[in-house]
Protein 1
Amino acid sequence: MIGVGGIGLNVIQGARLAGAGQIIAVDANPQKSDLAAQFGATDFIQAGPDVDTVDAIKELSAGGVDYAFECVGAPALVRQAIDSLDWGGTCVILGVPKLGSEVSVMIAGLYNDKTIMGCRYGAAHPQNDFPMIVDLYQQGKLLLDELVTSTYPVERFDDALTDLHDGKLARGVLNF
Ligand SMILES: NC(=O)c1ccc[n+]([C@@H]2O[C@H](COP(=O)([O-])OP(=O)(O)OC[C@H]3O[C@@H](n4cnc5c(N)ncnc54)[C@H](O)[C@@H]3O)[C@@H](O)[C@H]2O)c1
């Protein structure tokens, strides 16, 4: 999965709860490594200009992943997520890029039974999923409290934004 923010952390713990054996987290901010591990990631790749993310994922996963989640909202990262798939793999696009964004793909690479799909709010079915989420939380399996790193009075909005940019937050909450 690419992007260890509030969305990505929940992808990580969703994968853990689903029983994934290996969960590779990618983020440009090295500060996100510990958070990713806390939520269930087994590996962390620090993205950057000198790193070929697709190669790094393929090396760690011995050829490619079954599921790739884009959790940033950047077309170039959507392409990386697609390119990191193994045969039969599925790329799930969660990040929301600028309206009208497009991404190009190598059609030949998709014939190996690959799927590209979007997902909004976890494709949740509230009647069934919310009780399950509450159960998982009560059993201590779903980390919700840990998602809130800091709370701020609304006047300290700038501090919250700085902390977010510095990679200090899973989620920051503003109190009105
Ligand atoms: N599909 C949905 O239902 C849904 C719901 C809410 C938000 N979103 C979207 O999901 C995306 C993520 O939201 P969020 O709240 O988790 O954001 P966030 O700011 O908390 O996290 C984004 C993460 O991406 C990382 N990142 C930025 N550029 C990167 C790069 N080039 N390579 C690797 N990592 C990089 C950042 O370091 C950060 O950790 C946004 O586009 C948001 O609009 C989607």
Protein 2
Amino acid sequence: MSRVLIAGGAGFLGSHLTDALIEKGYEVVVLDNLSSGLRTNLSSVESRIEFFNDDVAKFDYPKRLDVIVNLASRASRMEWETFPVEVALTNSIGNNNLIKLAIRKEALYLYASSSEVYGKAKVIPTPEEYIGKTSTVGSRSPYDEGKRFGETLVKAYERELGLRGIIMRIFNTYGPRMRGGDTYGRVIDRFIMQALEGKAITVYGDGSQTRSFTYVSDTVGAILSLIENGSEGEIYNIGNDEEKKIIEVANLVKSISYSKSSIKYLPLPPDDPSRRSADASKLRKLGWSPKIDLENGIRRTLNYYAETLNIADHFMRKG
Ligand SMILES: NC(=O)c1ccc[n+]([C@@H]2O[C@H](COP(=O)([O-])OP(=O)(O)OC[C@H]3O[C@@H](n4cnc5c(N)ncnc54)[C@H](O)[C@@H]3O)[C@@H](O)[C@H]2O)c1
């Protein structure tokens, strides 16, 4: 059976991907420095994986590897701002080390890039051919430019040394195990925790900016499709084209959770894209389509946080 190394496997996407691969009978090796991931995310598969607490920049592995999925990178805006050097280097030097490992093992290499490479896209939904523009020096740049350079490295090694690469441009994904706190939480999970804890729901700007959201099992399903049927040398958007205004999402979370939280408007961060949505037709040609709509996904995520936080069910009741 194929052996897959998941870098960043203790994180949000990585731990769900680990669960799915184990379920399908793959051998899974997880590499994670636990900077933003948690060992407990892997507790249900702990005895069935090999785990290495190490940095992607230093890691080596003596045995056969068939696939490497590089998901290692802090992924929330507050983290790019707090740990800018680490984020930039993980996507460059760390990525470089894993690419060289993939070449030595003749393994398929899937690199997790991001919709952030499109910057403020003028074509919505955005296809893979769209050439994005981002600031090299703005506060988002360690991540945006890190991902752009990460992609450049994959393409360079493909051309010069025959890397078997696939670039995944992942759009906003949400669901259980994503960090939901006020500091490092990403939008839906942050809204859900704020609603459950009765805190104000923090919306940046007036909330008219849009994003397209994909539930975690659908994003993981897309990564599985690419591992099994993706074309080497290609770039795939992973996301859907249903645009939602952030204020609509905040109100949806409020109504589904019956929360009495107020909505608090905060200044819009610099370079925040006003619209974002994925043209995922290329991925759909592999047979993929999202299965969980936003309302259902929010419900599932709410249930998870309510259980994890041990929040009394009165937060989830009307009245
Ligand atoms: N979740 C999304 O909506 C989304 C969107 C676009 C792109 N992505 C990309 O997908 C990947 C996974 O994102 P996520 O949401 O699961 O984030 P996450 O923070 O939950 O997971 C990232 C994991 O990588 C680990 N890590 C970070 N730096 C490392 C290093 N130098 N060495 C070893 N491990 C390291 C962290 O400890 C964590 O477990 C990231 O590369 C992210 O940029 C995610």
